[in-house]
């Protein structure tokens, strides 16, 4: 269904779950999510530290079951979802959305100067003028604060997010499992 201007409406759905292991937890989370919004094309995934080593398997499972290719997220010591917090046990929180094509851009970790980021994403930034971004920082990278400042200034984008917390490898999700810098997703005004 399109709005009066002909654009498809943005639609989101969220769920969270806990379980004994990654497989039980991700299946419970998908069950709680139910039917996905029509045209779902972006997923946000947050896991407790207990699932850190299984993050790649979880991401693969979600991609296969949802057919959503673009995922971002990270691991934390705990996660908060609608009316519940999870600490010290395997848990996931997932948000999926149906957004206009090309209205968002997932980016892999920026670990230093922004030049490589702008070479890869500069044309998209110039066309879409992103207004909002969700970012995840690797606390082992001592430049994360300056990367956030530079990204916000260079793209004129309001950024929210946090630091990965938990295991020593500090995994993030930005289209794939990654680490080492600042990753996330930028949204155009669409």
Cα Rg = 16 Å
Number of helices: 4
* CATH top level class name of the largest domain: Alpha Beta
- How many distinct beta strands? 12
**Helical/strand content category:** alpha+beta
State the domain count.
Answer: 2
**What portion of the residues fall into strands of 2 or more residues?**
35-45%
**Major sheet: arrangement of strands:** 1-6-2-3-10-11
Helix content: 25-40%
Instruction: State the CATH topology of the largest domain.
Output: 60s Ribosomal Protein L30, Chain: A
Largest pleated sheet: 6 strands, mixed
CATH architecture verdict of the largest domain: 2-Layer Sandwich
Topology as a string of helices (H) and strands (E): EHEHEEEEEHEHEEEE
Spans of at least 5 consecutive residues with low confidence: 1-5
Overall mean confidence score, pLDDT: 94
* Separation of the first and last Cα atoms: 16 Å
Identify the overall geometry. globular
Question: What is the CATH homologous superfamily assignment of the largest domain?
Answer: Tubulin/FtsZ, C-terminal domain
What does this structure look like?
The protein has 2 domains: 11-98, 2-Layer Sandwich (60s Ribosomal Protein L30, Chain: A); 104-187. α1 packs parallel to α2 (55-66). The strands form 3 sheets. A 6-stranded mixed beta sheet has the order 1-6-2-3-10-11. Strands 7-12-8-9 form a 4-stranded mixed beta sheet, covered by helices on one side. Strands 4-5 form a two-stranded antiparallel ribbon. It contains 4 helices and 12 strands, in the order βαβαβββββαβαββββ. The protein has helices at 22-33, 55-66, 115-128, 144-155; strands at residues 11-18, 42-48, 70-76, 78-81, 84-87, 91-98, 104-110, 132-137, 158-163, 172-174, 177-178, 182-187. Mean pLDDT is 94; it is low at 1-5. By secondary structure, it is α+β, with helices and mostly antiparallel strands.
């Amino acid at each position: 269904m399109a709005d009066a201007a002909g654009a498809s409406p943005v639609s989101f759905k969220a769920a969270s779950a806990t379980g004994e292991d990654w497989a039980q937890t991700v299946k419970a989370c998908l069950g709680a999510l139910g039917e996905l919004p029509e045209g779902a094309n972006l997923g946000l995934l947050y896991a407790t530290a207990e699932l850190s080593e299984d993050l790649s398997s979880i991401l693969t499972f979600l991609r296969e079951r949802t057919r959503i290719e673009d995922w971002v997220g990270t691991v934390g010591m705990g996660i908060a979802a609608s009316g519940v917090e999870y600490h010290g046990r395997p848990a996931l929180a997932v948000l999926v959305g149906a957004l206009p094509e090309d209205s968002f851009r997932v980016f892999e970790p920026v670990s230093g100067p922004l030049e490589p980021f702008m070479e890869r994403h500069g044309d998209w930034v110039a066309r879409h003028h992103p207004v909002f971004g969700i970012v995840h920082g690797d606390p082992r990278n001592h430049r994360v604060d300056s990367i956030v400042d530079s990204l916000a200034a260079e793209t004129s984008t309001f950024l929210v997010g946090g630091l990965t917390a938990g295991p020593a490898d500090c995994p993030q999700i930005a289209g794939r499992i990654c680490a080492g810098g600042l990753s996330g997703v930028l949204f155009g005004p669409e």
